[in-house]
Write a structure and sequence with these properties.
about 80 residues, alpha+beta, 3 helices, globular
Length: about 80
């Protein structure tokens, strides 16, 4: 609530290890519902951490399907 009530907050960078789902997709869904009010009203950019990539061989699948980043605009080859 504190962050949502700050009128100067326009965007945020999530610096990895967002949900600690560790390959368990229902935990991702719970995290998404918990963050819905915030992410619906603020621009976000997220960076994957080790819990999005290496635990249980998740390989960014859940992360990439939930957080599409503007890779084409930066000249990157993957999203």
């Amino acid at each position: 609530d504190h962050v949502l009530s700050d009128p100067t907050m326009e965007h945020v960078l999530f610096a990895g290890d967002l949900s600690y789902a560790d390959g368990y997709n229902p935990r991702w869904d719970t995290w998404g519902r918990m963050m819905e009010d915030f992410t619906a009203s603020h621009a976000i950019m997220s960076c994957p951490g080790n819990h999005e990539s290496t635990v249980r061989h998740e390989n960014f699948v859940a992360f990439q399907n939930r957080f599409r980043m503007p890779y084409k605009e930066s000249g990157g080859t993957e999203g």
